[in-house]
Amino acid sequence: MSWAESPGGSSDAEVASYIAADGSETVAALDAKGKAWATLISEPINVIAEGCVGDGVTDDTQAFTAAWNKFLNSGPGRLVIPAGRTINIPNGFVSTIETSRAGGIIEGGGRLRTDPGVAYALDIQATTVGWRQFAIRDIRFINAGLRLKSFNASGGTIPQFDLDGVSVVNATGGHGIALDGVFECRIKSPNVQMGTAVTDYDAIWCGTPTSPGAVLSSVDIIAPNTRYGRRGIYASIDTNIYGGTMLYAQAEGIAVFDALSALIQGSHVENCWQSVPPEVGQNSVPQGRGAVRVVGTCTVIGVYATQGTDSYRMSNAVVAFGSPRCHIIGGASTRLRTYLYAWGPATGIIVADAVPSYFLEPNWVTSGGRFFARGSGSVSTPPMVFSGGWAGTAIANPSGGDTIDVEARAAVEAVLSRMRTLGFIP
């Protein structure tokens, strides 16, 4: 296709005149470069064609390294790990990105395998301006997971990437999926199963970056499914979690710390706190063990939490620990002591119309927590402010007096009526 044939394009002569003005390359040279670029995108780099055996037994480290380097040097290319093949990298693979890169897809439906106990099967570390618009799709990691990490002190260097359909099985030496110093990213339909005895690592870890000035924000986790690990999901700063199921975590199913504007919506958490020993008074007072734990500003919508037997020691569906604003909307729980357990100066709004048994105990908020609850699920009608106990006393409308200001009395009555409607006073 010539320049003139392209949709909306100018004539060859017009384009050539623009190029000639600054001494740049000819139209023909630019056409050739464009065709070469398109070829790189359309012709994937297949790791089997580059020398990997893919039988899950032969050490493919050397051949995979060669294929990876070719992939990095190919511009926005594609690295294919074919379905039905297991690339064996016994000690895992670390790639350090030292120059700016844009684009690239790792896909194919195949598997990356390491020996048990290795930290990560694929460990991508960016040291300069990083790698953006990058994706991993339908790859399965065995015995170790995936990490994307920034070492750039000036900020996150792995932005705008997608993980789509990534799965991890039997990770024991590190997190299943770990993000450090990333932003504007999406993880869709991850399935992560940690080793059954793992207590130090999370299935999905979106942690506070270790590099000064680096950021972790705008991470969306969509339909995650996790099993085992210390937590199902650990996240910080601005992370949104939509749906998914978190099972059998040693601690929380979901934990969000230092949140500035986090959202947890429609997630299901079951059978967490599986190996925590009993505490004194555990059966008589609410404990701070929650299916979901939030520290910071967070909205929790429609989260369902349950546990199957007494061997799991979740006490609460949601624990708000020192959260400045935690808004709870809808949701339900079974076999738990309370839905919300707040500790510290947590404040927020609770809407519980759909859950008549929302508050299982009157002592569900302690140590300064102050929430405004409304809806049929509240323990009081009309709903009232709760702060270590249901607050507010009835205030009668003004009556009597030697001098009656009808307009002032009407105004006061209107204010009191509005406060009753909103639930501030009974």
Distance N terminus to C terminus?
76 Å
Tally the helices.
4
Shape: elongated
Task: Give the integer mean of the pLDDT values.
Answer: 74
What is the CA-atom radius of gyration, in angstroms?
28 Å
Number of strands: 35
Low-confidence stretches: 1-11, 211-215, 278-286, 352-369, 373-391
Approximately how much beta-strand content do the residues carry?
A: 35-45%
Briefly note the structural class of the backbone.
mainly beta
- How would a textbook summarize the main sheet? 23 strands, mixed
Helix content estimate: 10-25%
Tags for this entry?
single chain, 426 residues, mainly beta, 23-stranded mixed β-sheet, ten-stranded parallel β-sheet, 4 helices
Describe the structure.
This protein has four helices and 35 strands. With 426 residues, it is mostly beta strands. It is elongated, with a radius of gyration of 28 Å. The strands form three sheets. It has a 23-stranded mixed sheet that branches. The chain has a ten-stranded parallel sheet with strand order 3-7-11-15-18-21-24-26-28-31, with no helix packed on it. The N and C termini lie far apart (76 Å). The N terminus is likely disordered. It is 13% helix and 36% strand. Helix 3 links the parallel strand 1 and strand 2.
